[in-house]
Structures are given as structure tokens and as C-alpha cells.
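Here is an idea for our session: we take a single protein and study its fold together. Which protein we use is up to you, so please pick one and set it down. Once you have written the record down, we can walk along the chain together:
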Amino acid sequence: MPIRKHLYPPNWDEISDQVRSRAGWACEWCQAPHLKVIQRKKTRTMPDWVEVIFVKETTGAYEDTVKMIAKRLKYHGLTKIVITTAHLDRDPGNNEMDNLAALCQRCHLRYDLYQNIRARRFGRAHDEQPKLF
């Protein structure tokens, strides 16, 4: 889901960089490295991914994955990892370091799955309305 900037403090970029640096610029749950091109495995082992540097095209030539566009990566079943910062209590106002985790796109989306489903089903305004009781 897109970030709603008005819910975050003005120094969010600095806080997020600190969290991701603390994690070594890798996902804290699956250890996928930031800005690397990987292929997810079908097994449930950890790590469940493998880094892919070159792809052999149908022409027989090898192409560097770093230079490939996202659509081409997806065609080959590859993903470029971007490490994000997640609020473990799902409150963007709580920016304590022990409440923040550096997660890859997949882990972050899986963590927020039910919250995102609620937001789509009932609209974001549903979560932001004051509670009457």
C-alpha cells in the first residue's frame, strides 16, 4: 500500500535509514539483500531465495539482471528486493526502534495482509473514524 506521508514524522527518512542500516540492509525475516535480484524458491527453507546475476536468454546470450527492467525480471520469475521499514504494531506514530523492522516487499506485504484487506473492503476512512464505544 502507498505510504500516507501525513501520518509519519518529518524525519521518517532518517529513522527508516537507521532501521535498515541496523539490519545490514537485508530483510530481518528472510535475509533477502537490498537491491539484489533474486528468485524465490518453492520450498519453506530459510533462506527461500537465491541471488541471480545473469539470465540466459533464448538467443543464448547472457543478460546482466541489474540492467533489466522490472517487467523483464518478472518474465523470468525474478524480483529486485527493496528493503522497507515496517511498524510491528502497525501504528505509524510509534517510531521506537524496537517497534520497527526492516523487511523486504514480500514479508512487509504478508505482515500487513489483513490490514490491507480491511482497508480495501471498508475503505481507509473506516480505520480512521473515531471509536464511539
Observations:
- Helices lie at 12-22, 70-75, 105-111, 113-122, 124-128.
